[in-house]
Amino acid sequence: MNIAIDGPAGAGKSTVAKILAKKLNYNYIDTGAMYRALTLKAIQEGVDFNNTNSLVSLLETTKIEIIHETVFLDGKDVTSEIRTPEVDQKVSITAAVPEIRKEMVNLQRRMAKNTNVIMDGRDIGTVVLPDANFKFFVTASEEERAKRRFKELTDKNYEVDYEYILKEISKRDKLDTKRKVSPLKQADDAIIINTNNKTIEEVVQEILSYIKGEAIM
Ligand code: DC
User: Fold this and answer.
1) To the nearest whole number, what is the mean pLDDT of the chain?
2) Most buried by CB count within 10 Å: which residue of 13, 85, 106, 213?
3) What is the reported pTM?
4) Whole-angstrom Cα distance, residue 131 to residue 53?
5) Pocket of ligand 1, candidates 122, 124, 148, 178: which has the most ligand atoms within 8 Å of its Cβ, to mutate?
6) Are 137 and 6 in contact (CB under 8 A)?
7) What is the full DSSP assignment across 107-132?
């Protein structure tokens, strides 16, 4: 069984996917974390983000693994390091490079083979796992998503400004939806889950009701 969860930044995909994976005993794969890990390495190595070839060759010498929700970059745990505002700002550039996407998609498909997975990202239902048993498109308004991201960062003691976060979310949405390769897009057969004004548990229950066949699609 494969479950695909797509949607824009800050919609609550990963929080919900993690809970669902525990409840259903599936492997959770956060594909955004893979693009983030490569972005982190590019920042650390001072790679010029305007130079696509450098980003592509960086991937050739990079090992990215996700083991039980821990993200490893060349064997080092980078789970929290990939969530800094600097990575947020640059990751859409890395994720828009066709050669990088091709490699990541291959890797993601291999991870989903022979095991039950719940995978979240932007192109899971459309490109990575087009035959997924369930596809959900989890979304929320820009303001709601910015509020959540603001809280997440301030909880981690980052000094951030709400208006700045809102602008960044909006910019990232544009980059993710307008890029040429695998843009963020709802799959034709995806179920839309709007998370505005809903608690995490409510969203989890809503998705579970579809998986258990209790809700009408
Ligand atoms: O879900 P996230 O915010 O951690 O994703 C980080 C970035 O990676 C986001 O800007 C879009 C990109 N991404 C993507 O293009 N395709 C995916 N399957 C997952 C993430």
Assistant:
1) 94
2) 13
3) 0.92
4) 32
5) 122
6) yes
7) HHHHHHTTS-EEEEESSIIIII-TT-
As a whole number of angstroms, the distance between CA 160 and CA 181 comes to: 31
The secondary structure of residue 213, as a DSSP letter, is: T
pLDDT at 216: 61
DSSP3 helix / strand / coil % (the chain, rounded to 5): 50, 15, 35
Residue 86: phi, psi to the nearest 5? -65, -40
Spatial separation of the C-alpha atoms in residues 208 and 164, rounded to whole Å? 35
Q: H or E segment at 135?
A: strand 134-139
Residue nearest to atom 20 of ligand 1 (CA): 32
For residues 70 and 77, the answer to whether their CB atoms sit within 8 Å is: yes
Per-residue pLDDT tens over the stretch 43-79: 999 999 999 999 999 999 999 999 989 999 999 999 9
Ligand 1 center–CA 122 separation, angstroms: 6
Give 82-108 pLDDT, tens digit per residue. 999 899 899 999 999 999 999 999 999
d(Cα 72, Cα 64) in Å, to the nearest integer?
Answer: 6
Dist. CA 83 → ligand 1 center (Å) = 12
Q: How far is C-alpha 23 from the geometric centre of its chain's CA atoms?
A: 20
Residue indicated by tokens 């970059």: 73
